[in-house]
Each structure stands twice: as C-alpha cells, then as structure tokens.
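2 proteins. here.
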Amino acid sequence: MAIHGCTVIARNYAAHARVLAESFLAHNPGAGFSVLIVDDPRRELADGAMFEVLGPADVGIEERELHRRATMYTAQGVVASLKSRLLTEMLARGQGPVVLLDADGCVYGDLTPIAELARRHSLVLSPHSLDPHPLWKVDSPEQTFIRAGVMNAGLLGVGDGGSEFLRWWAERTARRCVFDVQRGLMLAQTWLTLAMALFEHHVLRDRGCNVAGWNLHTRDVRWAGDVPEIDGGPLRHFHFACSYDPERPQRLTWREHAHWWPTLDERPGVARLSREYATRLIAHGYRAASETPPLFDAMPGGTLLEPWMRASYREALLDAERDSTSEPPNPFSDGEERFQRWLHAQALGHMRGEPG
C-alpha cells in the first residue's frame, strides 16, 4: 500500500533528516518523504534533497504566528508544535496514511504495517515501553514515563480518519508546547496520553518499532549478517533520542536523567547499530549542521532569547488572547528594540506589584 513519511526539524538537524529520509525510502520503495524545516526561509537545505522540503507557510503557519511560536518556544518547542500541522497537510493532499518520525531516528525495515494500521484505526500511537521496568526505592523508569507521557511522540501513524485528533492536538500545542512538569506538559508528547481516552486509536505493539534506550532493559539487537533483528523479528526503526552524540557513539545518551538505560557494553548489538548510525550522520554533514544554531535561538540583533523572556512573552500572549486585548510585541515581527522595551516595562511592573 502507499505510504508517506515525514518529520519536522530545525536547520541544525539537517543531517539527521537526510539519514532518516534515506533510510525510510530505502526500506519502503515507492514511498514519499517530506521534511518541514521551521527556520530555513530561503530553502537552502532543499538543494539536492531526495525528499520534499516544506516551510511553515506550506502547512498553514503564517509568518507572524511563526514568530509568536519562535518567541515562546525554543527550537525544540517550535518543531514539536508543528507536528500536527505537517500531518494535517499530508492528509489534505491525499498522501495518507502518513507515518511521522522524529528526525533522530533511522529506519531498518518495512513500515507499511504501521501505515496499514493507521488506515484501519485512523491513529497509531507508540508506547515508550512494552515491558515492565523494575520498581526502585524512590523513583523508577515507569514514573519517568508517566511524567513524560505514556506514548512517545517520535513515532505516530495517522490515517484519513485522524483529522479530529490532529485539530485537537494542534490547538493544544499552539500555546502549550513547553516543558512544565508541574502542569503535566512535555512539549507535544504528554497530550498523547489524554488522546488515548478521547479518540479511537491503535497501540503499536510491534517490538521492532521505536526501539530506544528507554526500552532496551530486557533485550538487545541481534545481527543476521548485516540485517538487524530484535526479539526474534525485524528491527524496523530505532530512535536515537535524548541528545545522541555521533562523536561519542559509545553511549546512547549523555544525559544524567537516563542513567537507567543499559550501557552499550551490555548491548553489543546496539553498539554496532550506534557506530554505523554515527558514521552515516557524519557523512551526511552532521558537523556543519550541528554548528549552525537554530535561527530563532537569538533575536534579529543577536541577543539570545533567555527562558524568562520566552515565559514572560507566552504568559502575556495567553492573557491577551483570552481577554481579546492587544498582543505583546515579539522581536521577529516587531523588532528587538520594541520587544526589549516591553520586557523592561514588564519587569518594572512586577517589581511594583502591578498585574502583567
């Protein structure tokens, strides 16, 4: 059956997108692949690409709305907030079923089973783990999943009946695509836990899909020559998440909070996978891409957008939209000077105890 893959990136993930698209197309002959780049207005990364390159305007995000999100969110948040819009555009074109993959993954097998499930069930969600983890004294991996979301947003399948879900997801991630553990938000991902109760869906239980460090506690990749397998079946997709560094492929993650992941000394099959993926990333321009900061990390004048600036702007924008009052200025549409003056006035108002 027809299948279309897609991903959303900022420009520093261009090498990841190239590897993902190449691997997807190699294992799914006749498929198409689209990459939405949130910060490449001149379409420079489209030159020589084997995949379709889209910009925010192509998925219905006009420039001022992009600038709002670029002020509220880091690049990771902007990327996550546009997943639903990319999927909506793909379905509107008649390219469903569509499989959305995070760019930091690689495809090793046929993904048409996911597309078939999406055609039948409209929405396919992928859990972080299909195996229980041991309980620890105070915290445990399963509690991490509860906080981060039972389902992982790095692999979704959507069919023609998924439009209602996508509208719902788009509404929530437009203004609430942030890291805020106290309020139950981890970008676009935690919303998927609630989606299970609100929309018809299928939970993907293919043990060769969305394989990642967080679900390797009971298993390892096995190799049949040059073909990777896992749990007695094909490895279809591996998710190299959590700041995987191809310059240091001897570890899947260097983040301290993932200390419970197995080491690659304990998983020699995954260690080979990691070495090969690292080689592919570097060959596809990882070093140059990773040294190119996302366009919206800084204001047009070069001043970095700090977390408190983003939070102040987002709070004021939410208030303005709720009360139908004038929205706050943002540095990309209204200029850095005007935005800085607004921030200064906000800070003075807080010092005086005035409402925002």
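next one coming up
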Amino acid sequence: MEFFPWINNIEKLKETLAQLEAKAPALWGKMDAQQMVEHLNLVLEISNGTLDVVIYTPEKYIEKSQAFLMSQEPLPRNFVAKFIPEEPITHKNADLKSAVEVFLNSAEKHQKYWHEKDAENRNHPVFGNLNKTMWDCVHNKHITHHFIQFSLIEALN
C-alpha cells in the first residue's frame, strides 16, 4: 500500500486538512473530525520530544509489531490500542481550525526534532523504542489511516 506523502511536505498536510469539515462523518470509529486531528497530534507529540511514554507491548511481541510497522500493510479499521480509552477524548482545542494549527506545528516540530538525529530513539506505546525511520513509518501509516477514515484521501493502492 502507498501511504500519504507527508514527510517533508507540510504543505500537502495543510492542503489536505483544509478540506476537513468539523461535521465530516467518519467511515468507521467514534471520533469526530476534531478528535481525529487531536489524536494525530498526540502521536506527533510523542515522536517530537514533547511527551514521553511507556511501552505497553510486552517485549516478546515488539519484534513482530515492528515488522508490521515497517511493512506495507495498512492499520486495520476500528483498531483500538489497549491504552486508548474506548470513548474518544473530549476536545482539547477550541475548534477544528485551532486543532489543525496545533497539529501542523507539531508536524513541523517533528521534522526539526529528528533533523540529523538518525541514531536517536523514542518510545512508542505499541511499537517500542523507535528511530527516525520507524517514527516516519508510524506517522505515514497513522495519518493515512485517519485521512481515509474521514474521506480526505482514498486508499492509496
């Protein structure tokens, strides 16, 4: 599967998110559009050094989960990680526009944080301790998954 080309292309993120409407229906799941953007932002904050997290996946499953991460397999629809609440988290930002601005700032911070840090690692709660390449794969899959969820893009095959 081809994933959304956001790496080094914040403009493409801006253009795509400009199409998102607050009342846009999701093809699956319980989140509304703003919650989805805030959810994507949370994962960016983990990767860009803003938030530190523990790894929930038992060590014996890390290799398998990282193999999936590095594959061309998409994230499954309706997947909810054990550490994510069943019900979506309430809005953190005043509105969708504010949430998008925060998200785009976090995406830029991610790019700056990882500039020339190929040897550094940061924890992901599911996939374990990841380097820059692996984090980029996380975001490629994650952003693609949620952009498809809200019909911002079609599945890129």
